[in-house]
Fold:
Amino acid sequence: METPNRPIPQPITPEARPYWDGLKEGKLMLPKCEDCGKAFFYPRVFCPFCSSRRISWIQASGKGKLYSFEIAYQNFNPAYKIKPPYIFAMIELDEGPHMMSNLINIDPDPKVVKCDMPVEVVFEKLTDEMAIPLFQPAK
Amino acid sequence: MKELRSTVCIVGVDESDEIGTVPHKSQLTLHLEAIHNAVRDAGLKISDVDGIFTAGQHSPALLGEALGISPRYIDGTSVGGCSFIIMVGHALLALHHGLCDVAVVSHGESGRSQVGVTRSRDTALSGQYEIPYGFGPAPTNFGMITTRHMHEYGTTLEQWAQVAVSTRQWAALNPKARFRDPLTIEDVLKSRPVCYPFNLLNICLVTDAGGAVVLTRADRAKSCAKKPVYIWGAGEGSEHVSVSQMHNLTFSEATRKSGEKAFAMAGVTHKDFNHIMLYDAFTSGPPIMLESLGFCKPGEGVYFFEEGKSTPGGTLPINTNGGGLSYTHSGMYGIFPIIEATRQQRGECGARQVPNAKISLVNGMGGMLSAAGTLVLSNEP
Structure:
């Protein structure tokens, strides 16, 4: 494979392994509390809602909305080689959690990109062992 | 909590010998100059100092070593730029209980020239969940808060720009400010786009600077060189690190908590203040802080920055040193609003002096509204 045009996620921490393994198979996996039933992000061994340590994993629908966004007119990290302008996205997944990503396949123009627009996940393969979730306007 | 009011005073404040672009000085030098100058301002000696408080890249132990003293109370709480504001509250407690007698809160940062700067911290979370998308410095995170605020409340780019314009009017009156030329809303809107919704002039400076604050108990403060400035109230709080973890993206829970504690200790309400210092890393910060502190309803903070309110001659002066936007911003800016509020309470501010400054509010954030510290300061007990 070519060198990825963005920083490879690292270091991968043990508690996040199911998330990263899922992405490799085209699944967006979320930790979910067995006691209060809420999904959360980022992966951790502790429920931030009810303090439970009984955590399992679910596959997220991949649907959500664009909770907030920014448009980068320059690169802020030398290892990130995608040409600006591009969109930094905060996604609100239908399951509840917020996560950071990029919004792609849309004109990076504040007149076009709108908070709360429906979005869906797309998976971007970075290496044979690594993929990340990006989002695009829902079809 | 109320019994703590006015038990401790700020007796010395100063910057390093130079602030701005200072490539010929290390961060340690910026610290030591600021501490030396602030202790001199108090009419005390370095050997009087027995409590050291600092955040950032240097530990309080290192500052003690460099100063040639062995402090008996140390605090290195590091939760971003507001750490120094929070430390004034920590120093208040330590002094009140006799755990130290003279406390120094110090900041030194080569933010612009990066002399001797190394970054080392746990990046496991940002490295997995943010960096791969290109996220980096503060504008790539604080913009999320700002965009959502515009969506929820209809706040406009012109209204954010007004914060920069108001702050520049104060900077014009401060000889130490880096940028002093008049600024218009148009100038802000036409400045280089960096990361929507921020253009360059929505974002603070990056400078080299040191600053220090000296504190002691009220009884001893009376014999110091300058008129003491009493700490009426102090509060702190934290909520998150990543903006993705905020419970409400347009409201700072940490700020609310810190303000409520400080106001309760001081026994004041919002209408009692006639001078306000807020941490302005971005133009959207101060309005959202005012909202989170309860000065107005969510969405209404920008109204404070109109001509005649926050500006020179206005009814509620805000960021009278010219702020992080125009005076200086080394990276962890929080020491500087304390210095300015102290000088305003002493009446030392010359052209920018707020008439009859009686009660100052200092509020600052750490990170992306992640942590917060609030102080209520007055020249009367």
